[in-house]
Amino acid sequence: MPHVTMTGIAARRLTGGLTEFDVEADTVRRLITELDRRYPGLGQQIDESMAIAIDGEIFQDAYLEKLRPESEVVLIPKIGGG
Amino acid sequence: MSYLDKAALKVVGTRPIRPDGVDKVIGRASFGADMTMPGMLWGKVKRSPHAHARITKIDTSKAEKLNGVLAVVTAADFPNIPNEEAFVGEGPMNFRDLSRNCMARDKALYDGHAVAAVAATSSAIAEEAVDLIEVEYEVLPHVIDVEEAMADGAPLLHDDMFTQGIEPKPEKPSNVAKRITFTKGDIAKGFAEAELVIERKYSTQPVHQAYIEPHACVVSYGSDGQCTVFSSSQGQFMVRAYCAKLLGIDMANIRAIPAEIGGGFGGKTLVYLEPVALALSKKCGRPVKLVMSREEVFRGTGPAAGGVIEVKIGAKKSGRIVAAELVLKYQAGAFAGSPVGPGCMCAFAMYDLDNVHITGYDVVSNRPKVAAYRAPGAPNSSYGVESCVDELARELGIDPLALREMNAARDGTKTPYGPTLVNVGYIPTLEAAKNHEHYKTKLGPNQGRGVASGFWFNIGGESSASVHVNEDGTVAVVEGNPDIGGSRASMAMMAAEVLGIPYEKVRPVVGDTASIGFTFLTGGSRVTFATGMAVTQAAEKVVEQLKSRAAAIWDISPEAVEWKDGKAFPAGSNAGSFEPLSLADIAVKSGRTGGPITAEVSINAQGAGPGFATHICDVEVDRETGHVKILRYTAVQDVGRAIHPSYVEGQMQGGVTQGIGWALNEEYIYDKNGRLDNPGFLDYRVPVASDLPMIETVMVEVPNPRHPFGARGVGEVPIVPPMAAVANAIADAIGTRMRDLPMSPPKIRAALDEQEPPRLAAE
Asked: N or C: which end of chain B has fewer CB within 10 A?
């Protein structure tokens, strides 16, 4: 199953300090749903302020993106620009 | 479809003239201040003269009685927005803060903070009326410097600001809005293995984006609730969303029309004037124009963050870096929200490191709220890191490019902020720099050379575009992004390439919020990537329709038609024998084959692909005056695939120029009362053409496989390396390392005096 790492540590308070999770999910939407089930409020935090890097590519607001069982998933702060 | 075979391209990669070029050259283009509306009034904003003060009373009665004044507004005329954060513009935006930045409520938090506004029948009357508004202040202690703002006992800007990112929640409020950390590996173990440790402290100053066109808007709030907003911004949808939120208006009732924009660089990714003008217009029932003076731009709008950068690097004598630690303290201005997060993430992204620890602090002080500026956050942290890496290289006696190559990030490198890099071109930029003739030329006395690298993520996001075939076979492209860097040309080129017609046959237009689907603003180097992807897909849909229409004319199956060089052909002999049909042939019969040929595509583009750059800078220092002359500058960058190479080069040259200004001259100077002393271009020194040599550019093309033409964002990363490249060159020239920006003549002179104290004439 995809291994999820959370960096930036802004949401640690919601996870009891945990920053790494194994999550059974094949889409970003299902990943967020499962994380929110485990840590209530984390889903909203991800939606509002986090991007998701899947195997090195950064996705923002991409519920439909597919995950593979061996995907490297990293939750990072959302990115803007100038 | 993919168009990565460069040799097969006919339009993409060429250098046609931009469609908006003539209008801009002859002064016909319509910028924010150029619009007028029937019955329009002139607005003016009254601003706080104090850096930090409680507003105890505002008396507008004298202004309201002045003949010609039709409306006066204060914070009382705006909804009191609750503390609510969303990612709508170019970063997390707290709507309460945005509202209070547009119009102070209770407290003025910086010199220039808006406290009231008027609308009158002439600008002279509006100015007179502003002076008649009486504001009583209780002046409070203020703080400007970032470390002074963090200190115990500093004047507090917000009583309800408790540092986020610290558990348990602090008991006392402070000016530190947030602490953020990134960790990879074991930093203590890494430093224990190091054979050389360099620990340094650097600083940068907040600088303004210095767009030439001041903020301006003309708005109308109709009696039926229908609003029109014509303004200069980086995103008409952003303007619509912020005005709707701040004033409680349904988005459907706001039509935001993008004016031409005279520069933004991130500084026009939020609103200052538009909600104020709408509030005035609502009150008096007449259209209102608001235009900032240059002084207002400096005093009241967002600079880029400056800050303190503490870097510690441990390395083997071979040059391999084994540990890196960073502390960033970033100026947010009066409200939380500095770009310290991306600053942390970009700082060491050029390197393949096992042990990293980064801490960032977002700090408020009595300055204007910062706004985005090319690659927000990255130039500061990279200045510190790339200066420290240079110090390490000099200490070890290793060529600075070779040291970078030894530690360089590449495909498969796990970044300090988490993700593993794919399809990146950092090492090719190092190789191109190393092999460039510039790097091999000899230097003379008092001359020095510096190199530095930089990284930026780039972004995609939501974009809409439509392609319409006109009856004569010409084509209209409508995009949802204001054109800042030549995007009309790039959009037209991609459409022309897909359709197989000349560039000149495509006319690109920037649509307003009622004429094209939602499009995220122009920023983050996203437009050529994301909106270009939408344009390409819309053009491909049009090609499918053209094939279908040709099939209808020939009365054969659409599958039996192929599209090539702008014409429909029968796909093989079995399809029949027909003369090819051009786009114009098909267009003129479109009414008979099903109606207008048009397609609109809306996407959320992903996989933008990061950008890397490596720069070489030569300087000459006048030891008598301390003046630094940029002798030669070469910028090497992985651009993915250049759609319009001249505009890519222009982005690179522009970013370098702004970075040189940040390095050498630009800074805000405050007096002891926290009032800005240099709110104008005479006293705030940006580089001009005569200050600089031609910036040489080297485009390395490592195509981004996510984009049909291989494009990457190119506008952000060019501002990341210059500050360190210039600083490293100065250190090379004078033999003394300076660490505080800007490295202006007085500071250079002081550094030289330390080397050799001045002697009195009698000696």
From this structure: C
Burial of B674 (0-12, 13-18, 19+ CB in 10 A): buried
Query: For helices B274-284 and B95-102, what crossing angle results, to 10°?
Result: 70
CATH number for the domain harbouring residue B523: 3.30.365.10
- Contact indicator for B465, B450 with CB cutoff of 8 Å: no
How many CB atoms within 10 Å of residue B207?
25
Number of domains chain B contains: 1
Chain B residue whose CA is closest to A73: B419
Q: Please check whether residue A44 touches B, CB under 8 A.
A: no
Please list, in sequence order, all residues whose beta carbon lies within 8 angstroms of the beta carbon of residue B87, skipping any fewer than 6 positions away.
A48, A49, A78, A80, B93
Task: State both tokens at B646.
Answer: 């001249």
Which residues, including other chains, have CB under 8 Å from residue B445's CB and lie 6 or more apart?
Answer: none
- Identify whether B64 is part of a domain: no
Question: Which pLDDT tens digit goes with each residue over B657-667?
Answer: 999 999 999 99
Query: What domains sit in chain A, N to C, each tagged with a CATH number?
Result: 3-77 (3.10.20.30)
Q: Confirm whether B489 is domain-assigned.
A: yes
Q: Binning pLDDT at 50, 70 and 90, where does residue B623 land? A: very high
C-alpha B598: how far from chain center: 33
Judge whether B533 lies within some domain: yes
Report residue B662 as tokens. Answer: 């940040």
* CA B262 – CA B22 distance, rounded (Å): 15
Here the ipTM equals 0.93
The answer to whether residue B420 neighbours chain A at the CB level (below 8 Å) is: yes
B655 → chain A, closest CA residue: A82
Which range marks the domain in which residue B557 is found? 6-28+460-605
Q: Give the closest residue to B499 by CA, choosing from B569, B571, B564.
A: B564
Segment holding B586, helix H or strand E:
helix B583-588
| pLDDT tens per residue across span B466-525 | 999 999 999 999 999 999 989 999 999 999 999 999 999 999 999 999 999 999 999 999
C-alpha distance from B264 to closest chain A C-alpha (Å): 8
Which residues of B are identified as catalytic? Answer: 716
Residues of B in contact with A12 (CB under 8 A): 167
pLDDT tens per residue across span B65-99: 999 999 999 999 999 998 877 665 556 679 999 99
Q: What is the mean pLDDT of residues B349-357?
A: 98
Q: Tell me if B196 is assigned to some domain.
A: no
